[in-house]
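Appendix B. Raw example, untouched.
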Amino acid sequence: MRQIVQSRKLQHVRYDVRGPILVEAQRLEAEGHKILKLNIGNPAPFGFEAPEAIVADMVHSLPDSQGYSDSRGIYSARTAVAQYYQSRGLIDTNVDDVYIGNGVSELISMVLQAFIDDGNEVLVPAPDYPLWTGAVSLSGGTPVHYRCDEENGWDPDLADIEAKITPNTQALVVINPNNPTGAVYSEATVKGLVDIARRHQLVIFSDEIYEKILFDDATHLHTAAYAGDDVLCLTFSGLSKAYRVCGYRAGWVMISGPKHLAEDFLEGLTLLANMRMCPNVPAQHAIQTALGGYQSINEYIHPGGRFYEQSKAAWRQLNEIPGVSCVEPRGALYCFPKLDPDVYHIKDDEQFVIDLLRAKKILVTHGTGFNWFEPDHFRLVTLPDLEVLTEAIGRIGDFLTTLR
């Protein structure tokens, strides 16, 4: 009998956040070990609950959520998103510029399927959220990774971006605030990215899912606000992180810029939206409540709040480990520490995190899983409370003593 194999389209697709390392963690759990999972930014397992008003609104709307909605999303949700961007200075945003999706992840895949032809190149940051790289490849395109500069707070290297543009380059991905580094880009950086896109006639895909999770004086700037009316910009965001409702799968993409030049592309995007019937209807009813109500995220991101204190503690404690350095995160839910290659001679960082998992029952993600160029980083989720987080970093430090 013939073997049934995976599609060749998956040949260059990876998603190591949930890859072989998670499989090994599941094997250890089946043997009775307790694994502390610091590989995924999922607030729920660490005691972060959805705001009561959001849950109540979803429950209230369930009787009216049994049928399909408009394939782009219910009108009230799209209106709430449009008004949110209007309040942020993007006054020309209207309801028809918004598509609701089952999380940003679905929308990334839909947009790239509608946009990319075989052989197109898309500039993606390194390190990146690996769904971007995988979705570009799955859509038939080629991800080209531009370097973010660790010595400059993980800002994108604008010269590196320029050097990697070819006649096949079609789009530029921006992840701000950044996953996995926690960087939040300055106005000069955002303007620089938009200027590159403008001069080379690139579409911008701006992933802003962590836009409300900011620390100290960090300020998030919407890329679309600088793209104006001559650069097509697709802005992705949603409720998963700031409202602690990852499982609700409520995200959106907002299109701005010269939409009259993108009518054919937007027709294709609408076709794909129609093919998936509609987004999850109950969760759409949470969007208006979330964006228009009390912003509970503020309790977590200021001094004394859990997101803030845990991020700062993790950053300090990681830097106390000999041979480990970590740029201070200015937002998001992660640290991306570096292992000094002169101290730790790691050739395979995936094997490193598997060895850590087996020895200390701590699950993190290796840096090359985020398409970083060298095997000298790993990503740590900063969601556990301070006591658990301190113990986890202590275990990591103990393990690293065996490698020095």
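End of appendix B.
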